[in-house]
């Protein structure tokens, strides 16, 4: 489901739960931004940086904190 680098990032993180949801929500926002949904293999692209490329285009991620419980979300948009 994740690239080898993303899996390593999660496994080496002091807060694995937070790292997992960071990667997952970035991937979810990316597949929504490109319009494929979960039909694209999630290990076919990486979201470890603030940008990723797909089909010759650059997409950026913006992180937002939501609510008082330190929830976070990512929005992916075309650069």
Which helices and strands occur, and which strands form pairs?
Elements: H1 4-12, H2 16-34, E1 51-54, E2 57-66, E3 71-78
Antiparallel strand pairs: 1-2, 2-3
Helix pairs in contact: 1-2
What are the main properties of this structure?
three-stranded antiparallel sheet, single chain, 2 helices, 79 residues, alpha+beta, 3 strands
Question: Summarize this, please?
Answer:
The chain has 79 residues and is of the alpha+beta class.
Characterization of the model:
The chain is an alpha+beta fold. It has 2 helices and 3 strands. The chain has one domain. It has a 3-stranded antiparallel sheet with strand order 1-2-3. The longest helix has 19 residues, at about 15-35. It is globular, with a radius of gyration of 12 Å. The relative contact order is 0.19. The model has no long low-confidence stretch (mean pLDDT about 95).
